[in-house]
Amino acid sequence: MIVLGIESSCDETAAALVRDDGTILSSVIYDQMDLHAAYGGVVPEIAARAHAERLDLVTEQALAEAGMTLGGISAISVTAGPGLIGGVVSGVMFAKGLSRGTGIPLIGVNHLAGHALTPRMTDGVAFPYLMLLVSGGHCQFLSVLGPDQFQRLGGTIDDAPGEAFDKTAKLLGLGYPGGPEVERAALTGDPRRFPLPRPLLDRPGCDMSFSGLKTALRRARDTLVAEQGGLTQADRADLCAAFQDATADVLTEKTRRAMAAFAAEHGPTTIAVAGGVAANRALRTALQDAAAEAGFAFTAPPLKLCTDNGAMIAWAGIERLRSGEAVDDLTLSARPRWPLDRDAAPLLGSGK
Ligand code: ATP
Ligand code: MG
Ligand code: FE
């Protein structure tokens, strides 16, 4: 069985062909970074237009790279939410048209399920496992119990860390996307020069907050600018190091708690990390150490599959087909919000 996956919920227009043994036959990602760089963040209207322009091209390219035609495809799996609604609508409409024109079954999947199920495609990780999803738009702990069974253990109550990295970079005049820029600058910085808070660590549970960190960083920057009239390279490096350290501390401590809560119910199994922020080396190392201490195996999908891509959407569709659940039809609708909770049924479904 080979499934076509289509993703357009944020700033990547992507299509991929995946076989049910987890083999990725092709994965084409057109990232729109250049279009949004000037604004320091994703502009929804620009994103939606760019998706609409590119969806057919990335799909054609995915087919060509796999040496296939639509005839060999068992299903079209498309992100039906959550995400920037204009982009999600573009993808859903495109997939519906393709399905209508060819008669190939349509599956609308939850974007977060795509991220959360990726370790099964890449590493064959068995249920149940713990997932930390940490990206530009999301930050949450999920117990992944089955292909359509997710339990949220906690998450951010305000900004996602990737967004905070991006805003930090913007605040310090670094490039976009901010994560890699901040990480690079932090390499030569002293994380202790600016003591930043560790929000919510004093409270029990797995919820996190990152907007206070950003405010503290802005204050530190403003003080420097007022005193010196600007920022030196060293100031920037120290601020980045302080921010990265605080973010990693919060995420790692909350991950310890999530592992304890998960292990109390299911025993220690595997913790998987996905999302663009999982690319951060300092964070990765800290999480790896914490996992080892807690007796969990650690896995992080390859970076290309950590950030938004079509392969994970194809895979979520494969999991859905395998579980024997019904496919969708042309009434499938795009959902800007779609929590991945156990109670939010149907989880991988159309969300009607
Ligand atoms: P979504 O949240 O819907 O999954 P997204 O596009 O916001 O989509 P991703 O594509 O998974 O998220 O990841 C992008 C985010 O990851 C950006 O905010 C970026 O700054 C951050 N990021 C990328 N590399 C790093 C890094 N090395 N360190 C920290 N953050 C990083
Ligand atoms: Mg992205
Ligand atoms: Fe994503």
What is the helix tally?
Answer: 11
**Looking at this structure, what is the CATH superfamily of the largest domain?**
ATPase, nucleotide binding domain
Q: Give the terminus-to-terminus CA distance.
A: 26 Å
Which structural class do the helices and strands define? alpha/beta
Low-confidence stretches: 344-352
Strand count, sense and closure of the main sheet?
A: 5 strands, mixed
User: How many beta strands in the DSSP annotation?
Assistant: 10
Number of domains: 2
Trace the largest sheet across and list its strands. Answer: 3-2-1-4-5
Shape: globular
Portion in beta strands? 15-25%
> C-alpha Rg, in Å?
20 Å
CATH class identity of the largest domain? Alpha Beta
Question: Which distinct ligands sit in these coordinates?
Answer: adenosine-5'-triphosphate, magnesium ion, fe (iii) ion
SSE string: EEEHHEHEHEEEHHHHEHEHH
Overall CATH architecture of the largest domain: 2-Layer Sandwich
Mean pLDDT: 93
List keywords for this structure.
globular, alpha/beta, binds magnesium ion, metal-binding, Nucleotidyltransferase, domain 5, binds adenosine-5'-triphosphate, Gcp-like_dom, 352 residues, five-stranded mixed beta sheet, TsaD, binds fe (iii) ion, 18% strand, transferase
What's a concise summary of this model?
This protein has helices spanning 33-37, 44-66, 85-102, 111-123, 161-171, 178-186, 211-228, 233-266, 281-294, 303-306, 310-322; strands at 2-7, 12-19, 24-31, 75-81, 106-110, 129-134, 139-146, 149-155, 270-274, 297-299. By secondary structure, it is of the alpha/beta class.
